[in-house]
Amino acid sequence: MEETYLQSVRYDGETLYILDQTKLPQLTEFLELTDIEEVWDAIKQLKVRGAPAIGIAAAYGLVLGIKEAPEKDFESFYEFFKKQSDYLAASRPTAVNLFWALKRMDTRAKQESSKPVTEIKMLLAEEAHLIRQEDENVCSSIGENALTLFKDGMTVLTHCNAGGIATARYGTALAPFYLAKERGMDIKVYADETRPLLQGARLTAWELMQAGIDVTLITDSMAAMVMQKGMVQAVIVGCDRVAANGDVANKIGTYGVALLAKAHNIPFYVAAPLSTIDLETETGEGIPIEERAAEEITAGFGKSTAPEGVKVFNPAFDVTPHHLITAIITEKGIMHGNYIEELPRLFEN
Ligand code: MRU
How far apart are CA 306 and CA 294, in angstroms? Predict the structure, then answer.
């Protein structure tokens, strides 16, 4: 798959380069991060965002965070490592990829515990690279699988941004659109603007336009009308966490889109890498939902749009129950409904 390729997270052994997604689409600027606090801040402030990209950034953040870790023995190293890992884990609560990536780094550290600490540090940098590289392949496979659900001439609606910049490359929900373009298929996209931080308008519309994909921007409140008029034939979204029963947390507004799709008899698809599937959380009720600052709603992008002091509720995600999801698309195949039984099978070798 070829596309205009902007690597949102890149590490050169010294510096972590992060595409500052808060500046898009006006500016394409990279942050140059050299310590773990800066990485924490970049995740918290959504400079790097999207579940897989958060996981990748956290893995590299940990690599930066253990640079100064004691090297005399594994025990003192590991104590330091654990503190840094716990610190990063507190940056955002919902996307399970953050915890998945930190756990993978932890497993690798323990596997290598008999080696000198200087070498363990190098091997952990290698693990972070692997996490990034694997995500690229995973997204490519998700794109292939998702495309089997779409036909030439279709128009598909998406919510938030689950594109190349939210992952290592290609994206999850947007991957089939890049692939379709490459294969000469005509698939058009409607992008919800995605209140309050406009990931759909600022990021999805921008990303797809860069790649020459036919995208039309709508406000979130227009999705119902677009469906009623028969203007879209499917919905595809990414996700931040899939519970064991197939309930899915994704950007606030996704649940509403799923309900609308059901009401209009339109298939609602979720693209989910295995790194986003959390079998330890039984249902969507167990998924922690991040609440963010009131100013994102009352003064989004600097302009005051509400009376000062108004009470605000600002959950960043919602949970779509599994019965509204037509299929979950992973790198290992597509699941149609029987999630409780099918999800664990994905993890069998
Ligand atoms: O708050 P954000 O912008 O990190 O939320 C992102 C989403 O909800 C995405 O849809 C999800 O992380 C999937 S990205 C492949």
Answer: 10
Kindly report the pTM of this predicted structure: 0.97
What is the residue-level pLDDT of the chain in tens, covering all 349 positions? 444 478 999 999 999 999 999 999 999 999 999 999 999 999 999 999 999 999 999 999 999 999 999 999 999 999 999 999 999 999 999 999 999 999 999 999 999 999 999 999 999 999 999 999 999 999 999 999 999 999 999 999 999 999 999 999 999 999 999 999 999 999 999 999 999 999 999 999 999 999 999 999 999 999 999 999 999 999 999 999 999 999 999 999 999 999 999 999 999 999 999 999 999 999 999 999 999 999 999 999 889 999 999 999 999 999 999 999 999 999 999 999 999 999 999 999 7
Q: What is the CA radius of gyration of the chain?
A: 20
Contact 232, 157 (CB under 8 A): yes
- CATH tag, 9-139: 1.20.120.420
Q: Which part of the chain is CATH 1.20.120.420?
A: 9-139
Compute the CA torsion angle 196, 232, 269, 128 (nearest 10 deg). Answer: -60
Q: Which two tokens stand for residue 27?
A: 């500016």
Catalytic residue among 135, 192, 220, 240: 240
Answer yes or no: is the C-beta of 251 below 6 A from any ligand 1 atom.
yes
Residue nearest to atom 10 of ligand 1 (CA): 238
290 C-alpha to ligand 1 centroid (Å): 12
Identify residue 201 by its one-letter amino acid code.
Answer: A
Residue 240 is among the residues annotated as catalytic for this protein: yes
Q: Is residue 168 within 6 Å of ligand 1 at its C-beta?
A: no
- Identify the CATH assignment for 143-345 out of 3.40.50.300, 2.30.120.10, 3.40.50.10470, 3.90.226.10: 3.40.50.10470
